[in-house]
Amino acid sequence: MAMLTVENLEVYYGVIKALKGISFEVREGEVIALIGANGAGKTTILHTVTGLLPAKSGSISFCGEELTKTPAHKIVSMGMAHVPEGRRIFQELTVLDNLKLGAFTRRDKEEINESLEKVYQRFERLKERKSQIAGTLSGGEQQMLALGRALMSRPKIILMDEPSMGLSPLYVSEIFHIIQEISQAGTTVLLVEQNAKKALSIADRAYVLETGKIVLSGDAKELMKDDSVKKAYLGEG
Amino acid sequence: MKKVITKRNIMVALLVIAVYAALFFLVNMKVLNRHYRSLLAPVGINVILAVSLNLTVGFLGELNLGHGGFMSIGAYAGCLFTIYTDLPLAIQFPLALIIGGAVAAIFGILIGIPALRLQGDYLAIVTLAFGEIVRSVLTNMKVTGGAGGLKGIGKSTNYTIVYIVAIITILIISNLVKSRHGRGICSIRDNIIASESLGVNVIFHKLLAFVVAAFFAGMAGVLYGQNLGILKPDAFDFNKSIEILVMVVLGGMGNLTGSVIAAVVITLLPEILRGFSDYRMLAYAIVLITMMIWNANPRFAMVKNNVYSWLHRKRGNAR
Description:
The complex is a heterodimer of chains A (237) and B (319). Chain A is 38% helix and 28% strand. Chain A is built from 10 helices and 10 strands. In chain A, strands 6-7-8-3-9-10 form a 6-stranded mixed sheet, sandwiched between helices. In chain A, helix 3 (95-102) runs parallel beside helix 6. Chain A is globular and about 45 Å long. Chain B is an all-alpha fold and 319 residues long. Chain B has 13 helices and no strands. Chain B has helices at residues 7-28, 34-60, 67-84, 89-115, 120-140, 159-178, 180-190, 192-197, 202-228, 238-251, 256-272, 280-296, 298-318.
């Protein structure tokens, strides 16, 4: 059963057609990578799925419910978390407040504290710095915070937009390692990345986007061997 | 359940009582002359205004130039109520406060729903226009007494009542910003896309901040009217809104303690400097500019932060 199904999705920015009929599906437990160059529409897809952008036509169904007409703040409580591009943590709030905001749609205080402990276990650095102002963290730590914040909503699926952007190679490896852990813990992952090599290495399946259309899709390991993918995204061939 | 009786809360309660006792002593022992005694209520009213405006400007991060407008709506609504009803004072006065606040809050919703689709400068212009429209409507209506002002309001407030209302305002707003909804409001200021994607209902939380701020501005208006005994539309012009904004900016946006201090200083400063008569406004301007420069100076911010963290540590130990 597909957890998230997107069919013939079309999105416009004014008169410009950003997505020209996108269809893909994400099954429970999978790690799916969406790869493509700048301006291919990767971020637009995530923003439309999470309700930040309106769809012109097409459908998005998540666990059997239609999302295109659902407001953004309701989508989160259905079990979908979004780690936006460029981290977008709350710079002037403390680490703890950032994490608590991740659980904004939840009301069960005890369980929120449990999730908080889990996040602290996974990201020990965040625990050390819980009362520090988030804007003073390093780039890598901010990305950890953004991930931890998304996990606080106890999502069924987590949508990540360029988690490796602007990070040192060491942090990039760590982030991808954590994404694998999150997936193994049972959360479905939809990953948008420019770092195609890394993304394909941890994904089950992948979709390749070009100027608003999906041009290739299939098993991630096989796509890695595909000549056109190698040439365009992996800097080989 | 959170514990209500903590050491910290007891300390705060003791401080509140101590400040009041000091005021009571100063007033009753005639240490303060008549002139300074008459300033106590305006100081408290300005504290309420600054703290409530800080909710929209400091915590929500939206520039609001129409706080004087909400204040005047509350003032007229509450004071008209006291003029046209004949209830015992103990019932009438609290009712007037609530009615003033509620009417201002209703206008907060009415103006908020269309205005909060706008952001930044555009919202500032709309709130500015709102304040001016309210003023000219009040000037041209019969029931409000027009430009001559609304007369015959019973002077039924004193510094004690203003003090109590100010404390209640500070308590409610400081608890609101620390609550879940408060975190939602602050998250909108810091990053609207992230807060939307975390499930914060942006429209609702913007409106919440706006309406709560308008409510307390309305209450401050009622106190203002009941203190002076007369309301004139001109008292709530653009300058009033700017004066409140200056208090918020000087005290530090998103800093309630700062708002309280700035409100006290800015209300008292022109009066303390009265002795210099001619140079009074000059000195006022210089103090403002110096504070602005200091606030923008990282070294001053560091000193301030150190003082705050020192205070926090003290509090932490007390716990």
